[in-house]
Design goal:
Blueprint (H helix, E strand, L loop, with lengths): L13 H17 L5 E6 L4 E6 L7 H15 L33 E6 L2 E9 L3 H14 L6
Antiparallel strand pairs: 1-2, 1-4, 3-4
Length: 146
């Protein structure tokens, strides 16, 4: 796919969110995983979310919060895995923004032409696997994930 997913748009579109989610669910099927996925716009508002049949019930709200966190800070959620432990510089971060901040992998910001346009959150497998699938979904659209 070309970057027609955004053209001159500076925010996440439903079309692009569907492409991301479709990729996540197809990749999950290949890996025999049951995942949840959420895509939000550049303001952290949910554009699209869903979970595969028989996936973890808690996966969907986690995916939503991972997508939100990646946009709120403009970085992958896994960045804070070690920094938010007791005694580290970002200790307590997970309690900020109404408890929506997620400090483990699986949420990635989505950039187009250097601008933050949204975020994707994946949940339901080991968090590093969630992040890998999210990254592959972004790469499938020829976008950037920082």
């Amino acid at each position: 796919m070309t970057n027609d997913a955004f053209r001159d748009v500076s925010d996440m579109t439903l079309f692009t969110a569907k492409r991301i989610m479709d990729f996540v669910f197809q990749e999950a099927g290949k890996r025999e995983l049951k995942l949840a996925c959420a895509v939000c716009d550049r303001a952290g508002n949910l554009v699209l979310s869903g979970r595969m049949d028989d996936s973890q019930l808690g996966g969907l709200p986690l995916a939503v919060d991972k997508a939100f966190t990646s946009v709120a800070f403009g970085h992958p959620t896994g960045k804070w895995a070690s920094l938010s432990t007791p005694g580290e510089s970002d200790w307590g971060l997970a309690n900020s923004l109404g408890g929506r901040v997620t400090v483990f992998p699986g949420g990635l910001p989505i950039f187009f032409q250097g601008q933050l346009v949204g975020g994707v959150g994946v949940s339901g497998a080991a968090s590093l696997t969630d992040e890998e699938v999210a990254s592959l979904a972004i790469a499938s659209l020829s976008l950037e994930d920082n």
